[in-house]
Amino acid sequence: MKTLILGAGAIGGYVGGRLHQTGADVTFLVRPARREAIQRDGLVIKSTKGDVTQKVKTVLGAGEGGPYDIVMLTPKAYDLDSAIEAVAPAIGAGTTVVPLLNGMRHIDVLSAKFGAARIVGGLARVGVAMGPDGTIHHTSPFAAISFGERDGKAPRPALVALDAAVKKSGVDGGLHANIVQDLWDKWIMLCSLAATCCLMRGTSGDILEAGEGRAIVLETVEECHKVAAVAGYDPGDKGMETVRSFLTRSKSMFAASMLHDLENGAMVEADHIVGDMIARAKKAGIATPNLRLAYAHLQVYLYRRSRGGIGKPAR
Amino acid sequence: MKILILGAGAVGGYWGVRLAQAGIDTTFLLREKRAAKVKADGLVVKSPKGDAVVPVKVVTKGGEGGPYDVVILACKAYDLDSAMDSIAPAMAADTVVVPILNGHAHFAALDARFGKPRVAGGLARITGMLGPNGEILHGGSSAVSFGERDGKPARASLIALDAACKKAGIDGGLHPDIDQDLWDKWIMLGSIASMCSALRGTVGDIMETEDGPALMAEILEECRQVAASAGHAPSEKVLATLKVALTTKGSKAVASILGDMEKGGAVEGLQIVGDMLGRARTAGIAAPNLRFAYAHLQAYEARRVRTGLASK
């Protein structure tokens, strides 16, 4: 089985690196500068699960080195269009696309482009970042990916093979029997966390110090919960209790990575994570006053960023 | 008539300099360090209405240089307690304090400390900030408004202050309904401070978002209802002016609180917005946007405390 991974960034680089390390046939589709660095230095992973520097296969165009059974995508949502363009030449009749993105909207976009049958569901739970020198720093105690057929049917052979490769690689997770539920579960958590941390510009613990902070967090979770339920993916009492208790831990230093991005003037997945949740709520007639204000906050940020106004006095 | 002004910040400093230039007997009550600098260099003003370096009378204790007819108190809400301590020795039986603070919460504290008859109402519409060397960088508008609360006829010292302001080229002056003027300003400030802080942008930035115009209209309505419940609904004309100020596309208008937040500074909005929300609750007015804004400011303050900014 041959796997093409778009980019050798944080998540793709880590997962692909572990797959390659344990004998899977993995190729990275990268830009010239990244290829040069990898050819010179190798793909360098510094990880809580062990460091490794290794030679890996790279290509500059998706038309090279194929055909591929699996194409794995891990872009930020706002880079999805260019990601699609980059991998398009690699998508053949027998290719399965495994997107590891948060939210849901990318699945519709990918299905429209490549056909729904080629697109499976997937997501990553890895605390990982790429340093300026290209080193992949994996800092979380966990590293898992999850993927599966979106219609809940028996997995195609390519996914069964990917599952075997993942298990061999030491990356946790693998095939998921209800990947769409898993996607919704993660989206509820992420959207609630990103919306509240960004709107309040603080950690989970900072928000709880505000008189109404806890109520605002729980309302936001409930807005997302309703959207998931109306889509047929209610996480259930136990699933929701996990989200609620995680987001209401006093003094928690947990914060959405989106807040970090906001405070560093970086691009944010506002439309994909929060905007799309609101759009689905509107269609279903669900009121989302908290998400609405959070989305306005993110849109103000993006506009201000576009006019070069971040890091300067507001006026 | 003798006037004492606490502090020489952008508002009190500008006002006092113009009074002093016009020959009005004006004294600044300053901290030691600021006093030494102002005594040595005078007060420096950079203003569209004319730059000036003005030697002024300075004291470092409220008990010096008096008695005073008027004490002008232009401080931030979170500094009110120490400000009251500073001016207390200057408050003779017939001295009137003209507080130039935003909101309404300070009146309860001032009335309790000095007695309601000695506390007038006042506000300033003077834009500006202090430069790095303590110079007053005046923005352009220079209006003040003051008067008797509860619409009583003005006492002699306020009439004299009005004449002094007119002589000094300060706009506004004695207002026949200062309570209403205070509410009008608070509606504006409550709205703009809430939204500019909670959304972290200028009015123009907010107008670029899908729901920005609606959110601005909503918060204005929340504040209007609070004012109305206090018997101080703004006139149609004032309301229309506020609506334009809050919803003009491309506007660079922004609450000064945002600048404070982006520097990690203390924020007055906590009191301004929190008190507005408190009054909304008491009056049974739904105020969802004030609620978010107040939570935002509280989370900001919690983070300042957590990261040690608050103690700097």
Percent range of helical residues of chain A = 40-55%
Number of continuous helical runs of chain A? 12
Q: Which stretches of chain B are low in confidence, meaning pLDDT under 50 for 5 or more residues running?
A: none
Q: How would you classify the helix and strand content of chain A by structural class?
A: alpha/beta
Q: What fraction strand of chain B?
A: 15-25%
How is the quaternary structure best described?
Answer: heterodimer
Uncertain runs of chain A are none
Radius of gyration of chain B: 19 Å
Q: Tell me the strand percentage band of chain A.
A: 15-25%
User: How would you state the average pLDDT of chain B, rounded?
Assistant: 94
What series of H and E elements makes up the topology of chain B? EHEHEEEEHEHEEHEHHHHHHH
Helix content of chain B: 40-55%
**What is the element string of chain A, with H for helices and E for strands?**
EHEHEEEEHEHEEHEHHHHHHH
Shape of chain B, please? globular
What would you say this structure looks like, in words?
The complex is a heterodimer of chains A (315) and B (312). With 315 residues, chain A is α/β, with parallel strands linked by helices. Chain A contains twelve helices and ten strands. In chain A, 50% of the residues are buried. The model of chain A has no long low-confidence stretch (mean pLDDT 96). Chain B is α/β, with parallel strands linked by helices. Chain B contains twelve helices and ten strands. Chain B has helices spanning 10-21, 32-41, 80-87, 105-114, 156-168, 178-199, 203-207, 212-229, 236-246, 256-262, 269-282, 288-307; strands at 2-6, 25-29, 43-46, 52-54, 57-59, 70-73, 96-99, 121-130, 136-147, 171-174. In chain B, helix 3 (80-87) links the parallel strand 6 and strand 7 (96-99). In chain B, helix 6 (178-199) runs antiparallel to helix 8 (212-229). The longest helix of chain B is centred in the middle third of the chain and has 22 residues, at 178-199. Chain B is globular. The mean pLDDT of chain B is 94. The A-B interface holds A 199-203, 205-207, 209-213, 216, 289-290, 292-293, 295-297, 299-301, 303-304, 307, 309, 313-315 and B 196, 198-202, 205-206, 208-212, 215, 252, 254, 258-259, 262, 288-289, 291-292, 294-296, 298-303, 306.
